[in-house]
């Protein structure tokens, strides 16, 4: 057991899986000798060779086509798209191909692909690096969309994703890469896909969130606790398909809900969570569903991140509005 | 200052198309005559005739509403069957939506090809040992996947290649370039066919690019390319066969452009070639008919006759009837099956959908 950053936990997960299964292939732009632009694949090529961990030409559609083709020949590809803002280039191979191959072949072929890609704001990146595009991929039947909120889950979820015979889009929030450490077991372990987790129990209101906003929500909950508001904080972990049961159970218990995402209001997955509660849990509610999200503009210029991104304060205010409704 | 002569800087390698048979079916290029036995030559012709018969019957079946989506193949028999004939059973085929004949001769049961046309999931349930994927609708997508399949074959040390097809219009796609470039960069065993039939629906090939030939595009990725008379099955076969040998020997990918023509519309979904092609042009290409050319060649060798044509046509008609019987006895499509096929491990949310559906059906 060691205290690891999320990026180190991610590297450890890939290390475990490369060692466990010789079919695992890691590739992308600069993931080989360079070890990735964030060092996520640091040392892996040296350890496992250029046949297992390799660089590709600079073309995202080509990278995902490579993944699909390798899956068709029995490999377990773990491609990387350098920043999630670049997935538009690969969207057909992700949404039009990878997501539906098993379905279109009537379950006669498997697509055990894990697409890793960093995203998320707060680190002053240039344009189209930080955009939260999880809502786009979450709308594609056939995929699982997974995003961890810290180092422990990052390792366990990534191992689960790589071992899954279904395609997973695994999103890594850049601000979480090195901003916190957690105890992470040295050995391989899994955190289940399709399962949300109650990160903090509470009785007054449910805060549903994921990735960096989950950490912001936990901080907000701590402040609110001092003010006598006991918030339950739920980490979705798998954004699509949603863990409906865990969400509804929590809402049933608290009767109030705030959904927090970093994506714009019209994007992300808050609207799907809201739809679920509207359909299946409306009678549990003592107050309207509240959504905390970014404004409906393109992702801001880097100097505009602070006023634009949701944060602990906006979350706290939303919770108070809901509790005092 | 000296002015750069940009006109002189244009690349125009202008390959000469490779031909073996002339329009009368005589061998005009002994050097490139494939080393095929009489049985093999006859089998190649039979596959071409088979494809023509399927085309004609599928067109009628479509008009009767008994088949669905169909992209005519008449005129492209040399390009499609000649190339496919040079491939190994374990080579991996990634075809476009017009490349159904190759798929069937590669091992897909005809009934399944018809089910694909109608839009039935059973048409896409492929036996585990069939090295192919269903026809690709997204033009270019098959090219990037071919690079991946080829790399996979290389990593496994297989003595096989991945082969794929697109049309003239498809050469304008980004995936066309990326696929060939990746395969070239990884020196992967891939064979890229461009079937240039002069039109992408109504848009003539010259609108697609200022390149002199589509084969020139291989220069951009550093791989060899060749232009072949796509109405000449022996030329297509020989080029494909030699390309295959070169590729599986570990030399990396090749691109082959076949000059061909489709006699029918783009698809049977409402396209009318009269809007963009002249009768004179169509007539000129009918003079080059690949099936007739190959038949003349075999007849002159004493390997084929009108009677054999007739008898074989009856055989294929029966094959089609049997396949249609199988198609028409398929169960209705089922949303429950769809939900089950979607994931290997069904997520709870999808399971809830399935449960709701089942309880509704149970009522």
Question: How is this fold's topology laid out?
Answer:
The complex is a heterodimer of chains A (325) and B (363).
Chain A: E1 2-4, H1 6-20, E2 24-28, H2 44-48, E3 53-55, H3 60-72, E4 76-79, H4 91-97, H5 101-104, E5 114-119, H6 134-138, E6 144-146, H7 151-163, E7 168-173, E8 182-184, E9 197-200, E10 205-209, H8 212-226, E11 231-235, E12 238-240, H9 244-254, E13 257-264, H10 270-280, E14 290-294, H11 305-308, H12 312-323
Parallel strand pairs in A: 2-3, 2-4, 5-7, 6-7, 10-11, 10-13, 13-14
Antiparallel strand pairs in A: 1-8, 6-12, 9-11
Chain B: H1 6-9, H2 38-63, H3 77-84, E1 92-96, H4 100-106, H5 110-118, E2 132-136, H6 141-155, E3 162-167, H7 174-185, E4 190-196, E5 199-200, E6 203-204, H8 205-208, E7 225-229, H9 233-251, E8 254-259, H10 279-286, H11 290-300, H12 306-328, H13 335-342, H14 348-362
Parallel strand pairs in B: 1-2, 1-3, 3-4, 4-8, 7-8
Antiparallel strand pairs in B: 5-6
Helix pairs in contact in B: 2-3, 2-11, 2-12, 3-9, 5-12, 6-7, 13-14
How many angstroms separate the termini of chain A? 45 Å
Low-confidence stretches of chain B: none
Shape descriptor of chain A reads globular
Distance between the termini of chain B: 87 Å
- Helix % of chain B is 40-55%
Low-confidence stretches of chain A: none
What fraction of the residues of chain A are assigned to beta strands by DSSP?
A: 15-25%
Helix/strand/pairing class of chain A, anyone? alpha/beta
* Mean pLDDT over the full residue set of chain A: 98
